[in-house]
Write a structure and sequence with these properties.
Blueprint: H1 38-42, H2 55-74, H3 82-91, H4 112-118, H5 185-213, H6 215-224, E1 227-232, E2 239-240, E3 246-258, H7 266-277, H8 281-288, E4 302-308, H9 310-318, E5 324-333, H10 341-344, H11 356-360, H12 362-365, E6 370-375, E7 390-393, E8 400-403, H13 407-423, E9 428-435, E10 441-447, H14 466-469, E11 472-473, H15 479-488, E12 497-499, E13 503-506, E14 509-512, E15 521-523, H16 524-529, H17 533-543, H18 545-554, H19 583-586, H20 597-608, E16 612-614, E17 619-623, E18 629-631, E19 637-639, H21 643-654, E20 675-685, E21 688-689, E22 693-701, E23 708-716, H22 722-739
Parallel strand pairs: 2-8
Antiparallel strand pairs: 1-6, 2-3, 3-4, 3-5, 6-7, 8-17, 9-10, 9-23, 11-20, 12-15, 13-14, 16-19, 17-18, 20-21, 20-22, 22-23
Helix pairs in contact: 7-8, 13-22, 15-17, 15-18, 15-21
């Protein structure tokens, strides 16, 4: 389309074309050019074009049309019908002259603003002609009369409006609809901008949340899939003897396992592993057999062996057996085998203490495992990622224990006890060696014993510590308590002597002596040497049951020593309120009393320590992982006898190993003075007396200045315990004195009078 000229086109009369008619109004009055009325608005065609026609134009058009029609008829072609003429007349719009305002202003035509908008905003300006209609529409051919051209003097006659039919009603003028808000480009731009900014804001907020707030969770979730954790076992603390020699310690080992889902040939694999692990092939086959766990899944891990030597594990891995692997493990080693096994105890394969000191001090000995966490790749890159996540928590080894025991003395004590017990088919035996004045236990042996490195091959009764769990009726070794209490309370003196009958009646029970005195006056050393029941009962009658019970408690009976062994028995004493008439005869001589060998050994240690009871001690110090040594708290002590009375009692006890035909001659040690006492009692299980007897001997040496106390107890179901206790004591004490280089006694043995005049 050609650009519209800025200056409106004008006709000959000076009026703007397309905005007013050339003729006057209906009344025939000529109108000023450029002024139009409502007809001008109606003559505006839908294509925005105003057509002004003069009478000549209409006449020329009619003539032309008539000529065309006649030519068409003459040529035999159809001409225009009346209806077509009306249609063409309706499509043609005629312009009218704009009626001037009387004041010379704008016309009051209400459609003028709309015409101005449609006309490009020019006031009073007519729209320029539009291009010809498309060829597809019926084209109205107009011929312009020369009179309508510029220079014509005669104005064209006014056009008559075609009257509307009376029946045709005027259509109501519809108010134009408001365009939707979105039709405004500026609104669309603003809305699009807001939506875009909102979208970017949501994305930005989400990115910030992912990168800042939720980043650790997502990062952790991703890293977790690439992390591998390797446990760093913490070595269990060791147990040493008093000289730092290991009694039990842990060494690095390997455990061998099988994944039943990957083992291809179970019988062949079992045969290959059997000689290396020392386990029958049938047992290995059973362990490798596929099985279902409690959660319904197939088991992918089964132990084949624990604590395997590293060299053996390497040989197994060199076989490259499918489904067989090895991993770091810990094995508890007991260098002495059964050395102090009942004392030390043992652990489970998982290094948990189950018996003895291993169980009692498990929290101290057990370390805190560490771990190493690192990133690995996948597939062929299944290896630590350089520079990747890596965190190591170091393992904290357990603390160690230093015992008061002497490994060499422990070994010799166990050996002597086992040999003596084997000669008489003894069932249970115990031996304790206590150092004076510290109260430290230098050796604590039990029979039977076991190999702590292979505890599963022993019976539960073999693993008991007889010194603390072996409850006995002590018998005559209890008489030292009765004599000591009487000396301390002043009931008797070292020179006391009185007639002793062969028997005495208490309640309905007769108590007799094995060595008959026949009513003769007998000294206190003589009563002790021949273990007189009648003389001891008569002394207890003067002492009284309340005092005797009091001294039993002060000497440590009826209560645990708290030496540190699990399962220690407290023993039991008969309160004075529960005494029967026969109790006045049984209790003073060591019957109706429950005690352990360790409790009775502590009684004689009190006598050897000048009358001061010292709590027996088995653990000397602890050693933390850094090597710092911490001594155990000092043992509890209490005064029981005066030093003078303790010395007098030691002298009375020395008669047992020196007086002719005394009960303890087999316990005498050449070159040393020995004080002690023999005893014969019963073994009690749940308060019931067991068949056989319990023979015992408890003594000290050198008697003039005791350094060590040794107690030996032996339960012999068939009797003959006396042949065990005395000789076993002699051998143990002799080795102890030589081991610690105690010089022989320089003084002569005292001379005792059994029956003074």
């Amino acid at each position: 389309m050609a650009p519209r000229p800025e200056e409106p086109r004008r006709d000959a009369t000076g009026s703007r074309r397309g905005s007013s008619r050339a003729a006057g109004n209906r009344g025939g009055e000529p109108r000023e050019p450029g002024v139009g009325g409502i007809s001008d608005a109606r003559s505006y065609t839908p294509r925005g074009r105003t057509v002004r026609e003069s009478r000549d134009e209409r006449a020329g058009f009619a003539r032309g049309t008539g000529r065309e029609d006649r030519a068409a008829r003459e040529s035999g072609l159809p001409g225009r019908s009346e209806r077509e003429e009306r249609t063409a007349a309706a499509r043609r719009t005629t312009g009218t002259d704009q009626r001037r305002n009387p004041r010379g202003g704008r016309s009051a035509d209400p459609f003028r603003p709309a015409l101005q908008v449609l006309d490009g905003g020019r006031t009073g300006a007519g729209r320029t002609g539009r291009r010809a209609a498309p060829a597809t529409r019926t084209t109205v051919i107009r011929t312009v009369d020369p009179a309508g051209t510029p220079g014509s003097e005669e104005p064209p006659p006014p056009r008559r409006r075609t009257p509307r039919p009376a029946s045709a009603a005027r259509r109501p003028v519809r108010k134009p609809r408001r365009a939707p808000l979105l039709a405004d480009s500026r609104r669309r731009l603003r809305l699009g901008t807001v939506l875009t900014l909102a979208m970017f804001a949501v994305i930005g907020i989400r990115l910030v949340a992912l990168q800042a707030v939720e980043a650790p969770a997502y990062a952790g979730g991703g890293v977790a899939d690439r992390l591998r954790t390797v446990d760093l076992p913490a070595p269990r603390g060791a147990i040493y003897d008093r000289d730092g020699k290991p009694l039990a310690h842990s060494v690095e080992a390997r455990y061998v396992f099988a994944d039943p889902t990957r083992v291809k040939d179970i019988p062949a694999t079992a045969r290959a592993l059997s000689p290396l692990l020392g386990i029958p092939a049938s047992e290995l086959t059973e362990r490798m057999a596929p099985r279902t766990r409690e959660d319904g899944r197939e088991s992918q891990f089964e132990y084949l062996a624990r604590g395997v030597d590293i060299a053996t594990a390497r040989k197994i891995m060199a076989l490259e057996l499918p489904g067989i692997g090895a991993h770091r493990d810990e094995r508890r080693e007991v260098p002495g085998g059964d050395l102090a096994a009942n004392l030390i105890g043992f652990t489970s394969p998982d290094m948990v203490g189950l018996e003895g000191l291993e169980a009692r001090y498990d929290d101290l000995l057990d370390g805190e495992d560490g771990k190493r966490v690192f990133e690995i790749g996948k597939g062929d890159l299944n290896a630590p990622i350089p520079g990747g996540y890596r965190e190591t928590t170091e393992a904290q080894p357990g603390s160690s224990l230093t015992l008061t025991t002497d490994r060499d003395l422990q070994y010799r004590t166990q050996e002597i006890l086992s040999d003596r017990m084997a000669k008489v088919s003894g069932s249970t035996g115990a031996a304790i060696v206590i150092e004076i004045p510290s109260g430290e236990i230098l050796a604590q042996a039990s029979h039977p014993t076991y190999n702590a490195a292979a505890p599963d091959k022993s019976k539960p009764t073999d693993r008991e510590d007889a010194a603390t769990s072996f409850v006995v009726d002590p018998g005559s070794v209890h008489k030292a308590i009765t004599f000591g209490a009487a000396l301390q309370e002043g009931v008797i003196t070292p020179d006391t002597a009185f007639p002793v009958e062969n028997s005495i009646l208490k309640g309905d029970t007769w108590f007799s002596d094995t060595h008959k005195a026949h009513g003769q006056r007998m000294s206190l050393p003589g009563m002790m040497a021949y273990s007189s029941n009648v003389g001891t009962i008569k002394i207890a009658d003067q002492l009284g049951k309340e005092k005797l019970y009091e001294y039993q408690r002060r000497f440590g009976l009826g209560q645990r020593t708290e030496v540190g062994m699990p399962g220690e028995a407290p023993g039991r004493l008969l309160p004075p309120s529960e005494w029967s008439d026969s109790s006045y005869g049984s209790v003073p001589i060591g019957h109706s009393v429950d005690a352990t060998p360790l409790q009775m050994a502590a009684v004689y240690a009190t006598i050897a320590n000048n009358g001061t009871w010292v709590q027996p001690r088995l653990v000397k110090e602890t050693i933390d992982p850094n090597g710092k040594r911490t001594p155990t708290k000092p043992p509890a002590t209490r005064k029981v006898l005066s030093p003078e009375n303790a010395a007098a009692l030691r002298s009375i006890l020395e008669a047992v190993t020196t007086v002719e035909d005394a009960t303890g001659l087999t316990a005498a040690i050449p070159g040393y003075r020995v004080a002690g006492k023999t005893g014969t009692g019963w073994r009690l299980v749940d308060g019931k007396k067991q068949p056989g007897e319990v023979a015992s001997f408890i003594g000290m040496a050198p008697a003039e200045n005791p350094r060590y106390v040794i107690a030996v107890f032996a339960h012999t179901p068939g009797g003959g315990g006396g042949a065990i206790a005395g000789p076993a004591f002699r051998d143990m004490m002799g080795f102890t004195l030589r081991h610690y280089k105690v010089p022989p006694t320089g003084e002569k043995r005292p001379e005792f009078t059994v029956y003074p005049r």
